[in-house]
């Protein structure tokens, strides 16, 4: 438990004095891929926590499983699959109303305070994915809570207000194809951050990827898998630089990603 909600905690064998809050996508803190990411952060010295800000009601993983299975389905299977997706998508509106970003922000803010006060973290970073990427961008306006944010393929970003409020270093991991964070929004965010303070924002674009790749990128696709792994390392390097003071982050991304 942290901040009054269940969480997944991954503890480093050698604590570097810094903590990471991993803000999940809509599939929540029990998703295996998200827990593996938390473990990699811990392997790099960060005390990592992943709170359940969905209060035991993440989006049904069947939505993801059905969507990912569509390409291999028969025609009849696809028709049934689309029918299932339609029914689940209809319910998404009420789900988002039950789980507003504002509540997640409250949980993350309380978790950051606990990490500093009770767990010895001198600095706290936030790594967010999709829904959690939006949480991260909003938290980037709260320097009293977090010291740096990495937001991977975020959703629901409002231009200009969300970006104009940013006060801490903010790195974006961007998918090439992303209806939730399209090129127009990404470019506007980049321009706004540059106007506010050169160097405040950093954007890395991964060609050939889609929304969600940094968590759920397929290992069966070598290019996507390489992008997923590089995105994780870019996040780790970013936090080592801005939290731990280690100049581990290169000026340019690995060949997989393109720094914009």
Automatic annotation (TrEMBL):
InterPro entries: AB_hydrolase_fold, Dienelactn_hydro
All residue ranges annotated as the Dienelactone hydrolase domain in the record: 8-243
Pfam families attached to this UniProt entry: DLH
Taxonomy, superkingdom: Eukaryota
Protein name: Dienelactone hydrolase domain-containing protein
């Amino acid at each position: 438990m942290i901040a009054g909600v269940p969480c997944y905690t991954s503890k480093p064998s050698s604590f570097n004095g810094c903590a990471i809050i991993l803000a999940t996508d809509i599939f929540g803190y029990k998703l295996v891929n998200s827990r593996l990411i938390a473990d990699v952060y811990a392997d790099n010295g960060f005390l990592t926590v992943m709170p359940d800000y969905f209060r035991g009601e993440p989006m049904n993983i069947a939505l993801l499983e059905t969507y990912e299975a569509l390409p291999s389905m028969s025609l009849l299977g696809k028709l049934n699959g689309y029918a299932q997706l339609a029914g689940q998508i209809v319910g998404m509106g009420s789900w988002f109303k039950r789980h507003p970003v504002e509540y997640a922000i409250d949980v993350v803010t309380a978790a950051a305070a606990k990490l500093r006060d009770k767990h010895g973290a001198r600095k706290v970073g936030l790594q967010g994915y999709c829904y959690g990427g939006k949480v991260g961008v909003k938290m980037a306006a709260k320097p009293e809570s977090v010291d740096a944010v990495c937001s991977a393929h975020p959703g629901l970003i409002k231009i200009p207000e969300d970006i104009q409020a940013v006060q801490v270093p903010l790195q974006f991991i961007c998918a090439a194809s992303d209806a939730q964070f399209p090129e127009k929004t990404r470019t506007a965010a980049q321009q706004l951050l540059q106007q506010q303070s050169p160097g405040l924002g950093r954007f890395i674009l991964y060609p050939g990827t889609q929304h969600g790749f940094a968590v759920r990128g397929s290992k069966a696709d070598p290019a996507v898998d390489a992008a997923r792994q590089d995105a994780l390392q870019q996040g780790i390097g970013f936090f080592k630089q801005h939290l731990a003071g280690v100049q581990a982050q290169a000026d340019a991304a690995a060949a997989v990603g393109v720094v914009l």
